[in-house]
Amino acid sequence: MGNNCCSNEARKAEGTQRTDVDQFFENDGLTTPPPHGYFQGLGAMHSSQSSSNSLLSMERHFTMNKLMRKEDKNRQMHKLRIYRDDSKSSSAIKTPKAQSTRKQRSPSPTERNNRLQLLKSKQAQQRLIKNAVQEFDHNMYGKSTQQLISKTLVELVNETKDINNAAIKRYDMAEIRKFLISSSWNPQIACKKIIQDIEWRNQTFPINDNEIYNMIKSQHVIFCGTDRELCPCLYIRPNHRETGAFFKQGLNAGQYKIYLCYILDQILPQLSQQQGFTNKVSIVYDIENGDFRLDILEIIEDLILNHFPQRLHRIFIVKIGVQNITQKVKTKFQQKFYKNHTLLFDENYMLNLGKFFDPQELLREYGGHINSNRDQDRIGLSQNNVEEYILDEFQQVYPEKANLMLRFKLI
């Protein structure tokens, strides 16, 4: 009986505890209650003890289990929080990459052209700095340069035994230095170039055709001012014609080549004496809306680059008759000249020349402030006296033509 009573009381106590435990889980919000039969076994283990001790022991185990479950839940939440933070940080890192890829779009043609122009300007500036350093290292008064010029003269004397040595006198130290620059400062190469130039001059001069006098008398050549880079400027007008049978028939390229060569022969030494050895020449080539002669442009470039080396800075072509330019000539001009030394200006030539010339150093008819007819003392060789100057020099070189020269002066 006692055992039965004890067992009945134990069952009643266990049933009451079971109800309280289920209510606790419901109130506490725990989703995973302990496995069924856990507390039955726990009550059987303590059935021999007093009811108070059994309840305290059960409460202690229950409290520990609750704390462990809460700790597991907190640990899971912490892991979930870390995972979310990692995902946010990774997305935050990826977002700028996506934006950067959006920014790296293909540049437009205008942007590409601007970048190309900026790169070209930087490269040109670097070349100018490099040339300036080389120019400083090989200055006219340097000992090494004088030795190279002396070696070149020795080579010329040895190589020109069958050539009239008087032809060598034309090549002063400035001209020999120019040939040395174009030959990478090699005396042997410079000597060969000078000999080729002497042979070319012997074939070109003396002038036996009287038509050159008409050309010298009628063509207008103006020598005045400097551009923004301090290069002296020469104005040439090939289509300027006065009355005469020669000009009515058209301009002969061969004779014009001789004419230009003689002008440069007279003017360039003056530049070396008056404005220094290193100055280059800029040419304003005024077509006056006449014929666009590509062959004459080729003659100018050949003369200044090959026979007067390192003396050409730029050629500015103005007053172009667009209707006189064929597509073939225009294409050839752009391929041969535009990338090198020549700039082609249309009806906006005054605005364009203002980018390369100071108005105080430019003739009035080209947008400057110099009057070629009044400011003769300022511009050196003016429009009015340059032909007379060249004719006088021509008379000294070819005295046998003196009578013919005098007759043309009186006309």
TrEMBL record:
The encoding gene is: Contig10852.g11594
Polar residues composition-biased segments: 89-99
Q: Which InterPro entries match?
A: CRAL-TRIO_dom, CRAL-TRIO_dom_sf, CRAL/TRIO_N_dom_sf
Per its record, how is this protein called by name? CRAL-TRIO domain-containing protein
Domain of life where this protein originates: Eukaryota
The record ties this protein, via Pfam families, to: CRAL_TRIO (PF00650)
Q: Which species is the source of this protein?
A: Stylonychia lemnae
Q: Where is this region: Disordered?
A: 68-116
The UniProt record lists the CRAL-TRIO domain at 211-374
CDD domains cross-referenced by the UniProt entry: SEC14
